[in-house]
């Protein structure tokens, strides 16, 4: 288990690395998908930047520390969909989720253009850079925050035996409607048990359908 000053994972817990992390075919698909995704990002970049600028003052991108494969921290990259002081206002927003996650269907910190970016998943386009760098995969488990991992116990750490993904079972079968941490863990562990290149491709196809239909997003 790789540890750092950012990772609160106990040293005695080591779930082992999942075989998907060693798959050269999965990595090739990630690289090709990331290059395609970044090409799409380049086309949409200036309209998105202009919309963010006109809607809310502040930076274009939002970065947050997340925990990846075997507890390795990395900075996830997104188009900003909230006000710039969102973290400082978090205590004023009610958490409607159960367990070690934070969600609110009508989060007042989300900007008007941010609502559109989230419903269409356009805010996640910059994550293709995380995939290209090898910090994430196109398909994997939901990338947890450091605060979430700090509350882990037992089998929760098994989620970290694969690379986090831009999409996964939680995105396809529930997306933002999944507001129970134990349900997310179940989906992530199911993904690990069912993993294959074919299953990854199936989840990518279903993600495309879900995103186009704006299903379960807020």
Describe this structure in words.
The chain has 218 residues and is mainly alpha-helical. The chain has a two-stranded antiparallel ribbon. It has one domain. The N terminus is likely disordered. It starts with 23 loop residues before the first helix and ends in a 6-residue tail after the last helix.
Coarse shape = globular
The total beta strand count reads: 4
Helix content: 40-55%
Q: Enumerate the strands of the largest sheet in spatial order, edge to edge or round the barrel.
A: 1-2
Radius of gyration: 17 Å
The proportion of strand residues reads 5-15%
Based on the structure, what is the oligomeric state of the protein chains?
Answer: single chain
How many domains? The number is: 1
What is the SS-derived class? Answer: mainly alpha
| Main beta-sheet strand count, sense and barrel state | 2 strands, antiparallel
What key phrases describe this protein's structure?
218 residues, mainly alpha, two-stranded antiparallel sheet, two-stranded parallel sheet, 8 helices, 4 strands, 9% strand, disordered N terminus
Outline the secondary-structure elements.
Layout: H1 24-55, E1 61-67, E2 73-79, H2 86-89, H3 112-119, H4 127-132, E3 137-139, H5 146-149, E4 165-167, H6 169-173, H7 181-194, H8 197-212
Summarize the structure.
The chain has eight helices and four strands, in the order H-E-E-H-H-H-E-H-E-H-H-H. The chain is mainly alpha-helical and 218 residues long. A two-stranded antiparallel ribbon has the order 1-2. The protein has a two-stranded parallel ribbon with strand order 3-4.
């Amino acid at each position: 288990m790789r540890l750092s000053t950012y990772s609160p994972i106990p040293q005695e817990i080591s779930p082992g690395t999942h075989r998907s992390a060693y798959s050269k075919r999965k990595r090739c698909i990630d690289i090709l998908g990331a290059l395609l995704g970044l090409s799409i990002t380049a086309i949409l970049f200036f309209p998105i930047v202009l919309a963010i600028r006109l809607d809310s003052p502040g930076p274009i991108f939002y970065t947050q520390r997340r925990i990846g494969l075997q507890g390795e921290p990395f900075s996830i990259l997104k188009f900003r969909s909230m006000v710039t002081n969102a973290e400082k206002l978090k205590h004023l927003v009610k958490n409607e989720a159960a367990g070690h996650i934070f969600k609110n269907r009508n989060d007042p910190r989300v900007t008007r253009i941010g609502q559109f970016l989230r419903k269409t998943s356009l805010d996640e386009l910059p994550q293709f850079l995380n995939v290209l760098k090898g910090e994430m995969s196109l398909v994997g488990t939901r990338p947890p925050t450091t605060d979430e991992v700090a509350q882990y116990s037992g089998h929760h750490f098994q989620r970290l035996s694969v690379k986090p993904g831009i999409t996964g079972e939680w995105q396809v079968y529930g997306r933002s409607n999944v507001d129970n941490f134990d349900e997310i863990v179940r989906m992530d562990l199911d993904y690990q048990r069912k993993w294959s290149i074919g299953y990854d491709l199936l989840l990518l196809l279903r993600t495309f359908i879900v995103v186009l239909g704006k299903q379960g997003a807020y």
